[in-house]
Each structure stands twice: as structure tokens, then as C-alpha cells.
Amino acid sequence: MKILVINGPNLNILGKRDKAQYGNLTLEMIESKLSSEFSEDIFSFRQSNSESEICSLIQNSSLFDGILLNPGGYTHTSVAIRDAIEASTIPIIEIHLSNITSREDFRKKQLTSSKTAGYISGFKENSYLAGAYLIKKLFLSKLIEGEK
Fold first, then answer.
1. Domain boundaries, the chain
2. Annotated catalytic residue 128
């Protein structure tokens, strides 16, 4: 499978951020762990602090079988990313390192999550591993249904 992994704002500074919320690993370490655990798959990793770039990545993802998306803080604010997700024809799973529902009130509003296939939150780097597993399951289910 070809999976696009999109990381939003401030994920490029993992390792420097609150380790209790985000874990000890850098983004590069998470990417390495994901590639190692799912070595039969091809991952393309992107990180951007720009809302418009994230929208473009989603809009131009037709060569991929699925997307793992960690929109960071944009999950609470971006109608534009939400609309790009809604227009996508491939499965998207939203992932978060921290448990966003147990944090500040403003983080409990999730604009983007409702347009994804589902979201995973609170398992630090394991959120990415769970997301990859589920993207594969969704893709295989879609293939099986297409064969019927």
C-alpha cells in the first residue's frame, strides 16, 4: 500500500514539546517506527505548518491508497482542511498524539475529525501505528466489497 502521512503545525518540534502530552519521540523517530512496523508498505511523509499546503497535499493525494493525517491545532480551527478531507476519495484517518478530549476546552471542538473515516487520539506514537493498521483494513475491505 501507498500511504501518505501528513503532519501539521508544530509536529516538526516534537521532542522539544510537552513530553507528557506528546511523548519522547521526534517526528523522524515516529516515521522510522512506522516504516519499520509496516515494512511492506510505502509511506510518504510530509510536515507543514501551512494550512494551504496541507489542503493541497490532501487534494493531490490520488496516487495514494490512504492518508494518515495529524492536523495538529488545525483540527480545532480549519474549515479549509475539513473541506479538503470531505472532497477526498481515499480513506483518511485522523491521528493525535495526545488525548485531545481530556485537554483544554478549546481542543474539544474538532472540525476536521467528522469528515474522516475515524480518529485516534491519546496513544502518542502508537496512534500512528493504529492508524496505519486501520487504513490497511479499510483499503482491504474496499477491495473485497469491489469484488462482490
1. 2-147
2. no
